[in-house]
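Researcher: I'm preparing a figure for a lab meeting and need a structural model of a single chain. I don't have an experimental structure, so a prediction will have to do for now. The sequence is pasted below. Please return the structure as tokens so I can convert it later.
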Amino acid sequence: MPWQPSINKIPGGLLWLATQRTTNTSEISAMSRKLIQTVAETISKQVEHFSKTEIECLIREYKVLLGEPTVPGRAVNGLDRGKFRSMLHNMFGMTDDMIMDGVFRTFDKDNDSFVSMNEWIEGLSVFLRGTLDEKIKYCFHVYDLNGDNYISREEMFHMLKNSLVRQPTEEDPDEGIRDLVEITLKKMDHDHDGRLSFADFEKAVREENLLLEAFGTCLPDSMSIETFEQHVFQVDIL
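Model: Understood. Here is the structure written out token by token.
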């Protein structure tokens, strides 16, 4: 039997999701149970790591997060950047704007500025349960800020500057970050061209798994995953 938290021990993210579910229950009824099952059946053949039942739960959660259209009568295309970032912050504790934008861009595979239901489920399969291979590709894409298939010195500098806590006694913190970038390149830039290709990044991470999130936290910790999955996958399904 799954662990059932007492109300005073429920994490903040779970309370946020519970509030969302309470205030948006009408959205769930927008898709019939049969339609959800049919869609889940189709998606389950395309996405790894989730069962058909779990995908049904994720479809329901997606509808809850989607909420009401901002313009009455206009169809909602998907989760926009704001809603997606709110979910990352409230449920998974992410606070770095640059990294959250990178996660959004990685989920939004067709680059239409919305995360569709399929993109949501496909993205979560890696975000929550991905293999090391999948996570290496995911993290590289998050860190490749301009989408040119390389992580440049400038991108490393901006990401590290955002993610590191500055000490008030530091006279020139940027200088320390530049030094860290050079140390990182020395460790990870195997072809010595002053930037990281996917091959560089993959080789470095395979040699040292801790380098997977070298430029900022872009994957959830185990507690956040447990909280999210416990909430979403405990939906009653008859």
